[in-house]
Amino acid sequence: MNDRDQRSENRDQESVPVAKIPAGGAPPPLKAAPLAYENLNFLNSADGRPIRIVSEYLEPLARIRREKIQDTVVFFGSARFRGREEADHILELLENTGSTQPAPSYEQPAKATEIAAGKATDLQRKRAVAAVEMARYYEDARRLAYMLTDWAKRIPSPWSRFVVTSGGGPGIMEAANRGAHEAGGKTIGMNIRLPFEQRPNPYITPSLNFEFHYFFMRKLWFAYLAKALVVFPGGFGTLDEMFEILTLAQTQKLGNRITVVVYGSEYWKKVFNLDVLVDTGAISPKDIELFQFADSPAQAFELLRTGLTENYLAIEAAAGTPSGEDLMEGWAVEDFLKPEIG
Predict the structure, then answer these.
(1) Residue 156: in which H helix or E strand, if any?
(2) How far apart (Å, rounded) are the C-alpha atoms in residues 216 and 196?
(3) What parts of the chain have a pLDDT lower than 70?
(4) Distance of CA 315 to the CA centre of its chain
(5) Per residue in 127-152, pLDDT tens?
(6) Host domain of residue 180
(7) pTM for this structure?
(8) What is the CATH classification number for the domain harbouring 232?
(9) 277 within a domain of the structure (yes/no)
(10) Which of 260, 303, 292, 297 lies closest to 140 in space, CA to CA?
(11) How many other C-beta atoms lie within 10 A of the C-beta of residue 253?
């Protein structure tokens, strides 16, 4: 054994606690070991990761089942804007997606007085124009969520139908939860823990306020119960979530038929041109039919009501099946874990 190995062995030996045995030979009393599921050191370790992942499936499932949520309509959109003085449409840009901190002053939309005085930069002037649009989208999302919730509440069912669901943060997400809350319905927020200060918006139903560590588990819950998706203007996160759902629909991997409404055609047609994908053969012409554009709350609501009625309510009525679905029916641990683990 060389000196390096000897030093390593000595360190290993030093790190092992040695019980101090009295002269009489009897060891001291030993404290009870923590139960495995109460051992935070284990649960927060790499070895405990599978348990943390399963927990982000089972705990939301238990709460959603307890609250009798049958299905959802998910709203996506920008989390970087929040209303400061809604009457005047003055908006504040946030530092990051879902952050509680404002962005630096040079990134904020210019005020009218700054523009008039020539003190605004080109970026601030552009964002001042965009701020007015985002204020409109906030109010449109709020109005649409109200209309949808007010309609869904009237569907005869012991379960809550087509519950408005968002990512739980500010901006469009807050607007969606707010509209549903104002209509007197339950509304879900699915937040994600990020490495900067954030908080859920106050309009989420408290018992349906979720926070996830794993993005993929949050995405699972967005898709699992969704019967429709509404995509308001947003950034990377919105694009990611929208195209993931469209890909699942395109490849028929969703268990449900889903109505997808893309809100704000002027904005989105500047962001992407799917006709290029059709022309080059990257997607099929019929893939364009996976979503529909809408430019007003009334138009979006009609698309949602038509899709949800044709795909679900009319079929349920014709089949005479009662509304209300037990999410645990037929479920087994093996459906989530590998059979050898279950």
Answers:
(1) none
(2) 19
(3) 1-24, 81-120, 122-133, 196-197, 321-342
(4) 28
(5) 666 666 678 899 999 999 999 999 99
(6) 56-83+137-320
(7) 0.78
(8) 3.40.50.450
(9) yes
(10) 297
(11) 9
Q: How many domains does the chain have?
A: 1
Rounded Cα gap, residues 66 and 241, in angstroms: 27
User: What secondary structure letter does DSSP report for 169?
Assistant: S
SS3 45: coil
Concatenate the DSSP letters of all residues of 264-306 into one string: -HHHHHHH--HHHHHHTTSS-GGGGGG-EEE-SHHHHHHHHHH
Write down the residue that tokens 């609250």 correspond to. 67
- Tokens 């002037």 belong to 125
Q: Give a yes or no: residue 98 inside a domain.
A: no
Per residue in 243-260, pLDDT tens? Answer: 999 999 999 998 889 999
Sequence-distant (≥ 6) Cβ neighbours of residue 316 within 8 angstroms = 322, 323
SS3 call for 29? coil
Report if residue 335 sits inside a domain: no
The residue type found at 255 is G
Identity at 306, one-letter amino acid code? T
Long-range contacts of 97-105 (CB under 8 A, 24+ apart): 97/169, 97/194, 97/235, 97/236, 97/237, 98/167, 98/169, 98/170, 98/191, 98/192, 98/194, 98/198, 99/194, 99/196, 99/197, 99/198, 100/197, 100/198, 100/199, 101/196, 101/197
The closest of 24, 74, 114, 118 to 234, measured between CA atoms, is 74
